[in-house]
């Protein structure tokens, strides 16, 4: 594993039910990719191979649009490790779990 991404999807709608439905569809897509991920209140973090993660990043706005989003803001943070393995989600968060 040489990378991780944090991706935040913000469908632009005042209808919170619609927003939650769109975000749920994006999370279901991420879950189906078979990678380690962690959902939090503001973003979802995913560990994996850089190229696979970039495919996911490319698809997420499309999945949100298919789920009913007319305008979707997507924010992405990328951690790429050129040599060796990147720190995993667990490496970064395990000590803070309660």
Plain-language structure description:
The chain has about 100 residues and is α+β, with helices and mostly antiparallel strands. The chain has a single domain, classed as Alpha-Beta Plaits, CATH 3.30.70. It is built from three helices and four strands. The protein has helices spanning about 15-30, 50-65, 90-95; strands spanning about 5-10, 35-40, 45-50, 70-80. The chain has a four-stranded antiparallel beta sheet. The two termini are about 25 Å apart. The model has no long low-confidence stretch (mean pLDDT about 95). InterPro entries: MTH1187/YkoF-like (IPR029756), Thiamine_BP (IPR002767), UPF0045_domain (IPR051614). One of its GO terms (cellular component) is cytosol. This is Thiamine-binding protein domain-containing protein.
């Amino acid at each position: 594993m040489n990378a991780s991404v944090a991706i935040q999807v913000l469908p632009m709608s005042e209808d919170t039910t619609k927003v939650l439905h769109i975000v749920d569809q994006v999370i279901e897509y991420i879950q189906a990719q078979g990678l380690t991920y962690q959902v939090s209140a503001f973003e979802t973090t995913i560990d994996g191979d850089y190229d696979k993660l970039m495919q996911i990043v490319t698809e997420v706005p499309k999945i949100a649009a298919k789920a009913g989003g007319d305008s979707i803001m997507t924010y992405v943070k990328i951690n790429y490790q050129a040599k060796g393995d990147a720190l995993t989600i667990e490496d970064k968060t395990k000590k803070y779990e309660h």
